[in-house]
Amino acid sequence: MNQTKNGNKVQVAVLSELTPGVGKRVKVADEEVALFKKGDDTVLAIQNSCPHKGGPLSEGIVSGDHVFCPLHDWKINMKDGQVQAPDHGCVKRFDVEIEGEAVFIYVA
Ligand code: FES
After folding, report:
1. Cβ–ligand 1 contact at 71 (below 6 Å)
2. Domain limits for position 49
3. Residue 98 sits in a domain of what CATH number?
4. Which positions fall inside the Rieske domain (predicted)?
5. Does residue 3 sit within a domain?
6. Of 16, 22, 95, 102, which one is least surrounded by beta carbons within 10 A?
């Protein structure tokens, strides 16, 4: 068995519509999700709402595995959802699976 992922698998994008370093906002069920494609065609998915005051993280500046909130520049790790010091908090992250061109996330 491969690793277990939780939730329902939902297709949210195709790889070619994502641009490395530019977030994309998608809505899945009641969740707003920010997708980020990296240069190696892996994709990270986090809640599209900053834990500070709800800034749209899909519009943030990407640096490696981090995104800077467009409103007040909090730095958030997209792999584990953790806000980086000196600020604190976390956002929800979603498991991602890629099959060919199709990008899926798992939503609880
Ligand atoms: S809303 Fe994101 S840093 Fe303030």
Report:
1. yes
2. 8-107
3. 2.102.10.10
4. 10-105
5. no
6. 16
Does residue 46 belong to any structural domain of this protein?
yes
pTM for the full predicted model:
0.93
**108 token code pair:** 């609880």
What pLDDT digit, counting tens, does each position of 41-98 carry? Answer: 999 999 999 999 999 999 999 999 999 999 999 999 999 999 999 999 999 999 999 9
What sign does the dihedral 55-56-61-66 (CA atoms) show? positive
Give the CA distances from residue 95 to residues 38, 79, 86, 87, 101, in Å, rounded to whole numbers and listed in that order.
15, 10, 27, 24, 16
pLDDT at residue 108, rounded to an integer = 82
Q: Ligand 1: does its nearest atom lie under 6 Å from the Cβ of 105?
A: no
Q: Is 49 a member of any domain?
A: yes
- In the three-class reduction of DSSP (H, G, I as helix; E, B as strand; rest coil), residue 76 is classed as strand
Q: Structural domain tally of the chain?
A: 1
Atom of ligand 1 nearest to the CA of 54: 1
